[in-house]
Write a structure and sequence with these properties.
By secondary structure, the protein is of the alpha/beta class. The chain has a single domain (about 20-25, about 35-219), classed as Rossmann fold (3-Layer(aba) Sandwich), CATH 3.40.50.2300. It contains nine helices and five strands, in the order αααβαβαβααβαβα. Helix 3 packs across helix 9 (about 195-219) and helix 5 runs parallel beside helix 6. The longest helix is centred in the last third of the chain and has 22 residues, at about 195-219.
Length: about 220
């Protein structure tokens, strides 16, 4: 077969608008999975496979088209040092800020997060994601959620200002992650197991957009 007879490989369409990016992300979710809770989405092999497929495209987007470019992420994890040397330091810099395009506010302990809660630049019309580690000294992630969302934030509905609330962990209770997932649900959060930076970012992307799909379907 000559070169002229060989079909060209289909090249991915260049994305030029935020609407096209949102449509691409929406293609992660098969229609027959509508209505699932966010954890079920990240546990679905087809959803994760679709998310990996579009990761390279998302990675190459300019800042104004990145999926979280208008989001603030509040991240609480005792592995945050500000030195850039730990896994979570690198995850913030490379994945949340670099690839996803988010503005990230970090705290290295639950106590610091609670102390600064009323100072956070949160407005009801701005999307904010709250991510906390589960296993932290003094106050774990579940207790943090309970205490943090009791705070009065100048009349703002704090619990509904975060879309969504995520609890992460690399540990297990009694050899299983199920108890941690149950604790997360009790605290109004979705559990995301820690893994590689790529896997964590994809799961956050899936959960955030899964929650958005739920809210859109309920409207």
């Amino acid at each position: 077969m000559s070169n002229e007879d060989q079909p060209d490989k289909e090249q991915p369409k260049a994305l030029t608008t935020k609407e096209e990016v949102l449509d691409l992300i929406d293609s992660i979710f098969p229609q027959d999975l509508d209505g699932l809770d966010p954890f079920r989405y990240i546990a679905n092999p087809e959803v994760m496979s679709n998310a990996r497929r579009i990761f390279t495209i998302i990675n190459r987007l300019p800042q104004e088209l990145k999926p979280f470019n208008n989001y603030t992420i509040v991240l609480v994890d005792d592995e945050i040092t500000g030195t850039g040397n730990t896994f979570m330091d690198k995850f913030v810099k490379i994945f949340l800020e670099g690839i996803a395009g988010a503005s990230v506010i970090t705290f290295s302990s639950s106590e610091k997060a609670i102390g600064e809660a009323l100072k956070l630049p949160i407005k009801n019309e701005n999307p904010v994601i709250f991510i906390t580690d589960y296993n932290m000294p003094q106050m774990d992630g579940i207790k943090l959620l309970t205490n943090f969302f009791k705070r009065n934030h100048n009349g703002i509905d704090l619990i509904n200002s975060f879309v969504p609330i995520l609890l992460t962990s690399s540990s297990q209770l009694n050899g299983s992650s199920t108890p941690i997932r149950a604790k997360a649900m009790e605290g109004g959060a979705t559990y995301i197991p820690k893994g590689s930076g790529t896997e964590m970012l994809l799961k956050i992307l899936i959960v955030v957009n899964g929650v958005k799909r739920q809210k859109r379907d309920e409207a």
